[in-house]
Amino acid sequence: MVSLMDVQARWVYSEILEGTLAKFYDGGLNTDALRERRKAGLPFDDLTADERYTLAFQGAHVRQTLFVFFTGIEHFDLLQLTQEQLGKLIVPPDVWLDSQGQFYLFSHYITTTTDEPVDARSVQQPADGYKAPTDPLTLGKIFNNPVLLDGYHRAALFWKYGPADGIIPAYMPRLAK
To answer: Cα–Cα–Cα angle for 31, 68, 7, nearest 5°?
Structure first.
């Protein structure tokens, strides 16, 4: 079981160096020191409680429109998703701006095209082959349906170039029954 704050902080720790919104963390409290810790390869589990709080707080500021999908979630389970399960995750319109405000399944989203080079759908096959990610995907929820929030590049690489019988780690919210 993983707490909401740790999932939020892990998200920011995974993107603070080179994520598509990394520049939006510039000027944040301890951002430079946290970037240096990430660059040095310091594992998330070695961060202090204050550093985790700082990361989660910054994420709530930078990722406001996606953090709403954490509403009502207290804990997550670290699970392994198959490609079929990944395809059933919801992509919110905040991620796919050309969706005209509609929610779509990842399996549909990933088959569409884009002219944006930094868009996850534009990922290219790694020269050294596919490698499973170390950072899990981050999921939220909308009416108890899982929503993919973070890890689109990792998810796209897995979908396009991962093994057919492979798995990818994800933080799944504990959903109400």
So the answer is: 50
Rounded Cα–Cα distance for residues 140 and 96 (Å): 16
Report the domain count for the chain. Answer: 2
Q: Does the residue 68 lie in any domain?
A: no
Residue 67, C-beta contacts closer than 8 angstroms, at least 6 positions apart: 8, 59, 60
Check whether 88 has a pLDDT greater than 90: yes
Q: Please check whether residues 80 and 56 belong to one and the same domain.
A: no
Structural domain of residue 145, as residue ranges?
Answer: 74-173
CA distance 97 to 6: 28
Task: Print burial letters for 9-23: b (CB count within 10 Å at least 16), e (below 16).
Answer: bbbbbbbbeebeeee
Q: Phi and psi dihedrals of 124, rounded to 5?
A: -105, 155
Burial string for 111-140 (b: 16+ CB within 10 Å, else e) reads eeeeeeeebbbebeeeeeeeeebebbbbbb
pTM above 0.90, yes or no: no
**At residue 73, what is the residue type?**
I
Helix (H, G, I), strand (E, B) or coil at 152: helix
pLDDT in tens, 107-127: 999 999 888 888 899 999 999
